[in-house]
Write a structure and sequence with these properties.
Elements (H helix, E strand, L loop, with lengths): L22 H7 L7 E5 L4 H5 L7 E6 L2 H16 L2 H8 L7 H8 L4 H8 L2 H7 L6 H17 L2 H7 L5 H12 L2 H10 L2 H7 L13 H15 L6 H8 L12 H9 L4 E5 L2 H6 L4 E5 L9 H13 L1 E11 L14 E3 L1 H8 L9 E7 L1
Parallel strand pairs: 1-2, 1-4, 2-3, 4-5
Antiparallel strand pairs: 5-7, 6-7
The protein binds S-adenosylmethionine (SAM).
The site of S-adenosylmethionine has 22 residues, from strand 2 and helix 16.
């Protein structure tokens, strides 16, 4: 089986230089017992690394894109060469001199990965390795050129002051959702602009509704239901670095555990479909939001074949951004939806842009 999206989108460059999916909710959704075989879409690699905290026998990491696999290899090199504080500087969560840290990380990786990242040195020095993707560039243009048209620096800083939920609603209504802000969202999140600057237009083939409306709803969730002061994703989008809050993989409490288990990663350039076709079995799948990029028919076909590569009680964990995807009818009797867990974790998901988070367990 070939991958439908592979023929459409251009994978030459880094699309996501950091993971915009919350590993805290991912890891809580996957099987918790040690010794399991887990499979993860690579993307920028952060969530595959976070899955090492579950003490698995191995994590098979797949991605169609060599550039995305290179993001994971860089992190592995960085974790071998750098202490935690240096890692945060190299990634862009904190500011500091990144050139020498990049050199030390690249001394630990293969020559192809090193050459790939050396070409990106100016970008890494300016924005961190986690800021070197097309998606992060899109956020950067938003933050530096458009956001100042709607909001002052003081208003942006005030978003991250911790306050009770009622006051958060007032802040959003009185200070943030101004007419300028609404206009900005509609222009910036038009499909034309998103296609040009952030995402391949092919990725919108299956998306329903207006992107700006979706973003408005999700920002309300992030600004009122969740505490912005604890949200690393919102902080990066609005300020270009992380604040005190960090994504799970980048937090100090996990650094040494992840570092000590790097040899359990089994990294494979290629499609998830290739893993499934190889006859191996797994107990947990981090499927990112890849189903959204497939037509409903292809989704149903791929979903069925994932089940044939899943051990009993295996969990399929995935997000939907805008297009709804849940177990297809043909497979409905073979999995159980863990609704209570989904609802609990959806309420905590700090990567606020997704409309749905799905946990399905194989019967
Ligand atoms: C699906 S994208 C989404 C990332 C993130 N949710 C976002 O919106 O920022 C994550 C990664 O999946 C990879 N990918 C998509 N379809 C795939 C497939 N069928 N097999 C392996 N990797 C795939 C892409 O190359 C990309 O690096």
């Amino acid at each position: 089986m070939t991958s439908e999206i592979a023929g459409k989108a251009n994978f030459d460059h880094i699309r996501y230089a950091q993971l915009w999916e919350d590993a805290d909710v991912l890891c809580a959704a996957l099987p918790q017992e040690a010794g399991k075989t887990l499979v993860s879409i690579c993307s920028a690699g952060d969530n595959a690394l976070a899955m090492l905290t579950l003490d698995p026998a191995r994590v098979v990491v797949v991605d169609l894109s060599p550039a995305q696999i290179a993001c994971l290899h860089l992190r592995i090199g960085a974790m071998k060469a750098l202490n935690h504080a240096e890692f945060l500087i190299l990634m862009g969560a904190r500011s500091g001199a990144r050139g020498p840290l990049l050199d030390r990380a690249l001394a630990e990786v293969d020559t192809e990965t090193a050459a790939f990242w050396r070409d990106l040195r100016p970008l890494v020095e300016a924005h961190g390795a986690g800021g070197a993707g097309k998606f992060e560039r899109y956020f950067r243009i938003f933050r530096t050129r458009l956001l100042p048209l709607a909001h002052s620096r003081k208003t942006i800083d005030d978003i991250f002051v911790s306050r009770p939920p009622e006051e958060r609603a007032d802040f959003l209504h009185d200070r943030f959702e101004t007419w300028r802000w609404k206009l900005l969202l509609n222009v910036f999140f038009s499909r034309f602009m998103m296609g040009r600057m952030g995402r391949d237009k092919a990725f919108f083939d299956h998306v329903e509704g207006s992107v700006a409306d979706h973003v408005t709803r999700r920002i309300r969730h992030a600004a009122i239901t969740l505490d912005p002061a604890e949200n690393p994703y919102l902080h990066w989008i609005m300020k270009g670095t992380h604040g005190d809050a960090l994504p799970m993989t980048w937090r100090e409490e996990h650094y040494d555990v992840i570092r000590s288990r790097l040899d359990r990663l089994d990294i494979r350039l290629g499609s998830l479909e290739a893993f499934i076709g190889a006859g191996e079995k797994a107990d947990g799948f981090n499927l990112s939001d890849i189903f959204e990029y497939m037509s409903p028919d292809v989704f149903a076909q791929v979903y069925g074949s994932i089940l044939s590569a899943a051990n009993p009680q295996a969990r399929l964990v995935y997000w939907n951004m805008m297009a709804p995807r849940r177990v297809p009818d043909a497979c409905a009797g073979k999995v159980k939806t863990l609704t209570a867990k989904e609802n609990d974790l959806k309420g905590q998901d700090k990567a606020f842009f997704y409309s749905d988070f799905v946990i399905e367990e194989v019967q």
